[in-house]
Amino acid sequence: MNQKTAVIMILAAFLFWVPAWCPPVAAQQEKTDAPPVETIVERSNRVAYYQGKDGRADVNMNIVDGQGRTRNRQFTILRRDNLPEGRTDQEEIENFSGDQRFYVYFKAPPDVEDTVFMVWKHVELGQDDDRWLYLPDLDLVKRIASSDERSSFVGSHFFYEDVSGRNTNEDKHELEEVTDQYFVLDSAPKNPDVVEFSHYKTWIHRETFLPIQTDYHDRRNEVYRRYKVLNVSRPQGFLTVTKSKMSDLRTGGHTTIEYSDVEYNVGLPKDIFTERYLRKPPMQYIE
Amino acid sequence: MKSLLFYKYLVMAVIIPAAAWTGSFSQGPSLPEGLRIETRQKTGKKEVPELPPGLGEQKKKQPEHPSLPSGLGSQEQKEPEKPALPSGLDEKPQAKEQKQTKTGTKKQKAWRLPIELDGFWEVRAGTRIDDDPVHDDISLAETRLQLSYDRMITEYLPRGQLQITSDFIYDAVENDHDDVDLEEGEGFIDLREFWISFTPVDFLDIKVGRQILTWGTGNLIFLNDLFPKDYQSFFLGRDLEYLKAPSDAVKTSFYGDIVNIDLVYTPRFDADRFVDGTRLSFFDPSSGRLRGEDMPVKASRPDDWFEDDELAVRIYRNINAYELAAYAYKGFWKGPSGTDPVTGQRTFPKLWAYGASVRGPVGPGIGNAEFSWYNSEEDEDGDDPLVKNSEFRLLIGYEQEIVTDFTFGVQYYLEYMLDHEEYENSLPPGFYSRDESRNWVTLDLTHELMPQNQLLLSLFTFYSLSRQDVYCQPKITYHYTDNWRFQVGGNIFFGDREAFFGQFEENSNIYAAVRYSF
Q1: How many helices (H) and strands (E) does chain A have?
Q2: Structural domains of chain A in order of their starting residue, each with its CATH number
Q3: Is A191 in a helix, a strand, or coil?
Q4: pLDDT value for B79
Q5: How confident is the model at residue A15 (pLDDT cuts 50, 70, 90)?
Q6: Which of B140, B239, B220 is nearest to B487 (CA)?
Q7: To the nearest whole number, what is the mean pLDDT of chain A?
Q8: DSSP notation for A142-175
Q9: Percentage of residues in chain B with pLDDT exceeding 70?
Q10: Exposed end of chain A (fewer CB within 10 Å): N or C?
Q11: Contact A26/B20 with Cβ under 8 angstroms?
């Protein structure tokens, strides 16, 4: 092989090489002044799921299937952070990202009206959430055995954990890119057998740490599911997603969630999230 | 070879800084500086999501960012239209929100009737699949309209609430439509609920009136729940909600730091709506024949107000996610469990019951265990053949979602007759003798299908380990829209005809229903 050929070969090799490892180098420059990825994940989780000590919202869910047929769900959701009893330290409250309790009171469709769904969300890895269902026609308090967090929430394109928050410890997160507006994170599951995605990419707004879009990739690395924030507002100064959309890119089906009458630090008592209020809904927080 | 490596490093030394400098190699070949940003923005537009309204506006306020390239310019031009909306959205809804929550907004539903009535209209028909010599083939042919009215009455009572739910029925199988018996749920009106509830003090809830009551841990098996059931509706294939018959009662609930206590007082005994031959036949082992409409059970219920009353108590608390409860009941056997030696009518002897239950996570599923001791007060020694003996009942269950949307539940249930020897000794010769213990296994499979889970397949099976008789409940429910629901199902009995489910064999039926909910 003469020298000329060798040079051409090397150059040719570089044409394949360079694109492969140049982006990290390029991004590295911007990433140096980005906070560590754990901080981004933690802050983003807090902004998305832990605003205030508690909260309430009216939710309107519009489900559109691949054929364009629509279904509607309306419910009121109450949320309370399970802070250790009697804590008043503002900083502790603000940094809390532990267990939470959710109370969901259905108003539509008519066949599930007045049904209550309750969740005690546990953030410890490996501990399933506790879920209850109250069926008023039978006065029945049912324990729900289903533990699959990635199954449809009330028939929508949102999963249970999209609504209550996916445990941040379940994935390995990497800061892939920093753009003018976003931290772009790539997250891969630590246990790929229990989830349907191979990895997902999240665009987190740099200023607010609010996740704006999440693309879920399948095993062939195709995006098949997309979460997107469509509207944001600041009731009582708390940054809140008031409209978001989850799309199934394979079927074309999607679900839009709209939140209204959002209120924080309502002062929800702890016992709202017990059997007493499953049977007798706390209408003062619902209507 | 050495020279090759040299070239390689040389080229690297040139390219790496160049790549870092342009910062754009990932998106393609390097471009002259002037074009660099634009290209990034172009690709950025494809890959990077736009900020939603609300954040976009904030973005505009930020002075560090305005030097947006022309590539984003078009986006920025759109933004003035959008922010006009969010800026309004940002302020106004907030003010409105707070006002609304203070005054308490009404539920907003476009499809509500003007007087806020909820309910459904349903048509349901069923047919027997075996020949029943004492009944027609048609097991069900009815249409019902359920109307439900509820409102807060906080202006009269603290946290007061009123609910009225009534069914209006046209039943083509029933011969008699005019005789309305609200107690028995017969006739064209079935008043399901009519109650008020309130909270006089913070730790106390009271609910008075006609109400549906349920407690305990079983799935379609009730031990300490001695509130009235309607097995006739259940076996005929009416909606599950009709398994529970209403009670006319006062329920008082106390909530304490250590335990909670429910006290239910029913001033006049509410019996089960049991299989008495009128709608469903049963095999009578003592007469050795099938009994139906021709020879229904004649029963005399204890029915003196405040004399023939019932009291049910539940004391319960949670320890973490485990629900513990203890129960007591004083009243009567809920089904005919005695015989009047003079009239020959079936009776409802006095009953005391005590029990306990626990329910909570077990491994990846939910486990439950419950027992109850039924003390037949009128036959304490078990030697009266005309009154049912005392019993010990036990239930152990487990439920788990084995694959997404597919749930599997299994239960073991035991009814153990106490003083069985005394019972056998007291029986006149040749009389049918009940087994000392009856035990069942139930299997519950439910599968939610289709993208919106609008199709529900379920199969509930009771299998008697001691008598091998079977009761099987297959059901397919399809939610066509949010309002329309279709259902087909069956109630299949087979096996030993002297056994509990086998005696209903001629009633095996299939049914279909259409329901419009509003």
Answers
A1: 6, 13
A2: 35-286 (2.50.20.10)
A3: coil
A4: 36
A5: low
A6: B239
A7: 88
A8: EE-----TTSBSTTSSSBHHHHH---GGGEEEEE
A9: 79
A10: N
A11: yes
Please give the class, per CATH, of domain B121-517.
mainly beta
Residue B246 dihedral angles phi and psi, to the nearest 5°: -75, 155
Interchain CB distance below 8 Å, B152 and A228: no
Share of chain A above pLDDT 90, in %: 72
Task: For residue A162, report the phi and psi dihedrals to the nearest 5 degrees.
Answer: -70, -30
Q: Over 70: is that where the pLDDT of A243 sits?
A: yes
A120-159: b (≥16 Cβ within 10 Å) or e:
bbbbeeeebbbbbbbbbbbbbbbbbbbbbbebbbbbbbbb
- Written as six digits, the tokens of B479 are 């939610």
Burial environment of residue B52 by CB neighbours within 10 A (0 to 12, 13 to 18, 19 or more): buried
Q: What is the pLDDT of residues B149-160, one digit of tens each?
A: 999 999 999 999
Q: CB contact, 8 Å: A25 with chain B?
A: yes
**Number of other CB atoms surrounding residue B25 within 10 Å:** 21
**Range of weakest confidence among A10-19, B187-196, B399-408, B491-500:** A10-19
In chain B, residues 439-468 whose CB comes closer than 8 Å to chain A? 451-454
Which is higher by pLDDT, B58 or B316?
B316
Contact (CB<8Å) B405/A146:
yes
What does pTM read for this prediction? 0.83
CA distance B228 to B248: 10
User: Structural domain boundaries of chain B?
Assistant: 2-91, 121-517
Q: Which residues of chain B neighbour A210 with C-beta distances below 8 Å?
A: 55
Average pLDDT for chain B? 82
Q: Can you say how many angstroms the Cα of residue B422 is from the centroid of all Cα atoms in its chain?
A: 41
DSSP state of A235: G
Region for residue B504 given its phi and psi (left: phi exceeds 0; alpha: psi -120 to 50; beta: otherwise): alpha
Which residue in chain A has the smallest CA separation from B455?
A155
Selected residues 16-45 of chain B with any CB under 8 Å from a CB in chain A: 16, 19-20, 23-26, 44
Task: List pLDDT tens digits, range B431-452.
Answer: 778 889 999 999 999 999 987 8
> Cα separation of B94 and B88, whole Å?
10
> What would the two tokens of residue B337 be?
């469990």
Contacts of residue B59, Cβ cutoff 8 Å, sequence gap at least 6: A181, A207, B51, B65
* Higher local confidence (pLDDT), A222 or A86: A222
How near does any CA of chain B get to the CA of A198, in Å? 18
| B23·A29 Cβ contact <8 A | yes
The closest of B45, B24, B47, B46 to B36, measured between CA atoms, is B24
Confidence band (pLDDT; 50, 70, 90) for B178?
low
CB atoms within 10 A of CB A284: 12
Confirm if A154 and B452 have CB atoms less than 8 A apart: no
Q: For residue B341, which phi and psi values (nearest 5 degrees)?
A: -65, -25
Please give the ipTM for the structure prediction. Answer: 0.83
DSSP, res B115: T
Instruction: Tell me the mean pLDDT in the region A140-146.
Output: 89
Q: Which residue of B has its CA nearest to A227?
A: B49
- Give the residue from chain A lying closest to B55, CA to CA: A232
What average pLDDT does this structure show over B233-244?
96
The continuous run of DSSP H or E covering A6 comes out as: helix A3-31
- The helix (run of H) or strand (run of E) holding residue B376 is strand B365-376
Nearest CA in chain A to B117: A110
Q: Distance (Å, rounded) from C-alpha B490 to C-alpha B33?
A: 75
Q: What is the distance between the alpha carbons of residues A105 and B167, in angstroms, rounded to a whole number?
A: 24
Q: Do B48 and A181 touch (CB under 8 A)?
A: yes
Quote the radius of gyration of chain A (alpha carbons, Å). 22
